[in-house]
Amino acid sequence: MLAVVALVGFVLVVIGLIHLYLWKRLVADTTRSRRLRRAGAVAAALLTLLVPATLAGTQNGLYWLAWPGYVWLALMFYLLVVLAVLEVPLLVARRALRRRAVAAEPAAAAPEPVLVGAPGAAEPPAAEAVDPPDHDPARRLLLARSAAIFAGLTAAGTVGYGVRNALGPPRLDRVQIPLAKLPRGMDGLRIATVSDIHLGPLRGRAHTERIVAMINRLDADLVAVVGDLVDGSVAELGEAAAPLGALRSRYGSFFVTGNHEYYSGVEEWVREVDRLGLRVLQNVRQEIRTPAGVLDLAGVNDVTAAGTGLAAPADFAAALGDRDPSRPVVLLAHQPVAAVEAAKFGVDLQLSGHTHGGQMVPFNLAVRLQQPVVSGLGEVDGTKVYVTNGAGFWGPPVRVGANPQVTLVELRAP
């Protein structure tokens, strides 16, 4: 409990410092009016509280907080990024103005010579320390306002584009992945892969229907839903998830849990997804028998799962141990980092999501610190890992540099 309180306190301090910085650059530096500065300080304080209120409130049914809170979170992020990038050129510009102001100062008149030691002569006056003059305050104000306007327009434009992108239809990507063990007769086996649908406060049944229709048009051999389907309970979102029951494929539709299922009542959701007709692969594997050969399809629970029963943690030995090593095996695992363990069992291909492709550039750079592959096809210790960007979003309804995505994975024989 103490650790949770400390973490919450740390997050609040960080958010508060970010808003203090934004107030300094966007308000204090751009106006001489005390009244406007006080108003800006009040607004910054309220927006500071809005962020944790949104994160907590949307988990407790206060969905009306989602749009203003999450959109501001995205604006805050991009304002911080743009202003941070501007710090260096602003510093250079201020110093250039200061040097020009110093150079423009008239030279001080030379003092009249005084004969030292002459009768009645006073001691020469000591040289007075004079601070270099600052440049014109009006120019400093203009510079600050120009930076604030540029940051505001850039952040607003970026977020506006990102909202349009996030709420639009997922992009269909097709990728061919060769597997050394794939029988010749199974060449071209197609797996429709989707992750991170994130049904919740901002996405509902229409979102699911659009994704299901898109997948069904592909006429795939398999459908893989690799976690983070929901952000809420079955009671809240069961109706929104219901269209999944209409998924079509030749050899079945499959599901593995993501970390968000464990925040949303994982046992209920496992039963609900199974009821809708998707086979939930919880630390098990399934033989996919076709007229041309056999492929093992395995699935593990999310690597952050804990508990017992349906909430048991990932068990790679249970899913991958004691199998025919001559068969190709495809593993469904929500997080790409699962490949570190999967590679020890000779997995040929792992299909994952979780990263959202970074969702909002440059946040993707931080994701690289946690996951071996952020988006697309990569490799971990000999195991190929394909990471789809996900069809939804979490938090801000914003996607910049990482389009929502459904992927058709086509397996190719050597």
UniProtKB/TrEMBL annotation:
It comes from the Bacteria. GO terms for molecular function: metal ion binding; UDP-2,3-diacylglucosamine hydrolase activity. The chain crosses the membrane at residues 6-27, 39-58, 70-92, 142-163. The keyword S-adenosyl-L-methionine does not apply. GO terms for cellular component: membrane. It holds the Pfam family Metallophos. SUPFAM superfamilies: Metallo-dependent phosphatases. GO terms for biological process: lipid A biosynthetic process. The keyword Methyltransferase does not apply. Keywords: Hydrolase, Membrane, Metal-binding, Transmembrane, Transmembrane helix. Residues 189-357 form the Calcineurin-like phosphoesterase domain. InterPro entries: Calcineurin-like_PHP, Metallo-depent_PP-like, Metallophosphoesterase_sf. Its cofactor is a divalent metal cation. PANTHER family: PHOSPHODIESTERASE YAEI, TRANSMEMBRANE PROTEIN WITH METALLOPHOSPHOESTERASE DOMAIN-RELATED. Belongs to the metallophosphoesterase superfamily. This is Calcineurin-like phosphoesterase domain-containing protein.
